[in-house]
Design the sequence.
């Protein structure tokens, strides 16, 4: 198989890090844009008169498109050219951001957000696969992935703050323009600083596989979200079953194709499957608890959305530190030790969350748990991408990001069901189906106190379940990765 790697792909060390900075700028602004959006929904609703259903679509359509198309975009980048696809996606993202900012109706905004999701589905796998091209050295690649991963948490730190400032001083559309400067910068310098890499002899993308991947992923994500919001009703069950059936057909087709959209045989490799599965499980468990911690700050402690966001900042700071430390520690500590120890920090934090009622203690516990994922995410991503040939790096990177999307949605659905079951059992129907419903309906006195206590109990149980599950996962990782050596220092 012949690969095409342009001459400028062999770059000086200085140029490598400049290229990484360009990729990270786009990643940071996309991440920041996502967190700003969460604060903008009330203002958007008031300005455009969006219904409750339209509000959900404004929030969810971006994630649906990202999850549904990321595998396709990762594989398309391997064939079309990773730099070319990234630059196209950056241009589309910038234009769609402007359209979203000046939308005059909910439908127009939903359409713009859908296009943003299509572009966003290409940005993550393209940046990941380009990092693997720019940094062929395993140690440097791990460091670069640490910087790249840290951009997501930096976006989470400054997103609520920047969003609060923008929405306090400008109109709601300003929240959508925040990513435009990064995309302009990427388009200006990307063609000159980023290498191109594509597999010229790869076959055409199998269109039925693309359709089947969408038919599997979109119903599954919708079913999980509906399950979290409404419980196990007909709609959620039908969506999940449909996703599973189409997923089975998709896998069967990939096994028959000479040039599949996803090489599902990779999952027969124990290191690959356990690492990728653990990353998905971590996103599911820790992401779900984070959502309920944020709700606890607002609904139990009465914080404003901005104050709740600021309460999560220490956790985002420790997460950023963890992402930067992981590649350095990996030069001295084997993955089979470093990754489980990192997960142990999260387990310790979850144990404290399962017992805490004090805001200060909860903030500290959340900060401790966020210190842990750096080793798993960075070294895990490095292991997944390193396990495939260079021409498949885009599709491998897309698998890690799709797993994150699935994990997050699954975590909200599963742990949300736990919290809801505890809540209903402890309120005897007096507080509605959720604490949010009790607060919005104007519940006061003993009813509100009972509802808050019930939600807190549900949060405690969800955190305890997460601690147990992550402990088992850490043991599995220690056993599976025990033979791997430290990263080379060269």
Sequence:
């Amino acid at each position: 198989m012949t690969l095409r790697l342009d001459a400028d792909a062999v770059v000086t060390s200085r140029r490598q890090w400049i290229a990484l900075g360009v990729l990270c700028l786009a990643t940071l602004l996309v991440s920041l844009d996502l967190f700003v959006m969460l604060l903008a929904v009330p203002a958007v609703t008031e300005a455009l008169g969006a219904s409750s259903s339209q509000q959900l679509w404004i929030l969810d359509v971006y994630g649906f498109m990202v999850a549904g198309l990321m595998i396709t975009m990762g594989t398309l980048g391997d064939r079309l050219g990773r730099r070319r696809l990234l630059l196209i996606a950056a241009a589309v993202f910038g234009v769609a951001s402007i359209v979203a900012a000046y939308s005059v109706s909910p439908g127009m905004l939903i359409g713009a957000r859908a296009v943003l999701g299509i572009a966003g589905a290409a940005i993550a796998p393209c940046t990941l696969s380009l990092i693997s091209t720019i940094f062929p050295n395993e140690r440097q690649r791990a460091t670069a992935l640490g910087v790249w991963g840290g951009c997501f948490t930096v976006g989470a730190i400054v997103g609520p703050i920047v969003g609060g400032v923008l929405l306090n001083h400008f109109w709601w559309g300003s929240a959508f323009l925040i990513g435009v400067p990064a995309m302009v910068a990427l388009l200006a310098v990307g063609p000159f600083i980023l290498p191109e890499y594509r597999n010229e002899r790869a076959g055409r993308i199998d269109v039925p596989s693309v359709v089947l991947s969408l038919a599997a992923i979109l119903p599954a994500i919708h079913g999980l979200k509906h399950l979290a919001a409404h419980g196990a009703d007909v709609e959620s069950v039908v969506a999940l079953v449909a996703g599973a059936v189409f997923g089975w057909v998709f896998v069967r087709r990939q096994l028959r194709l000479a040039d599949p959209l996803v090489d599902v045989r990779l999952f027969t490799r124990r290191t690959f499957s356990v690492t990728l599965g653990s990353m998905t499980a971590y996103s599911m468990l820790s992401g779900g608890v984070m959502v309920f911690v944020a709700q606890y700050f607002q609904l139990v402690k009465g914080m404003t959305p901005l104050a709740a966001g600021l309460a999560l900042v220490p956790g985002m700071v420790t997460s950023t530190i963890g992402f930067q430390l992981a590649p350095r520690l990996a030069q001295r500590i084997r993955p089979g030790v470093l990754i489980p120890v990192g997960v142990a920090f999260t387990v310790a934090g979850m144990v404290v969350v399962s017992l805490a009622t004090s805001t200060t203690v909860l903030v500290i516990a959340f900060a401790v748990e966020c210190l842990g994922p750096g080793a798993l995410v960075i070294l895990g991503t490095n292991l997944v991408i390193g396990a495939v040939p260079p021409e498949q790096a885009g599709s491998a990177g897309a698998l890690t990001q799709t797993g994150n999307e699935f994990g997050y949605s699954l975590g909200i659905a599963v742990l949300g069901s736990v919290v809801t079951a505890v809540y209903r059992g402890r309120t005897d129907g007096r507080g509605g189906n959720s604490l949010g419903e009790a607060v919005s309906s104007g519940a006061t006195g003993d009813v509100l106190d009972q509802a808050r206590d019930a939600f807190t109990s549900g949060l405690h149980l969800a955190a305890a379940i997460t601690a147990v599950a992550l402990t088992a996962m850490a043991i599995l990782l220690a056993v599976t990765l025990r033979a791997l050596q430290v990263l080379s220092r060269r």
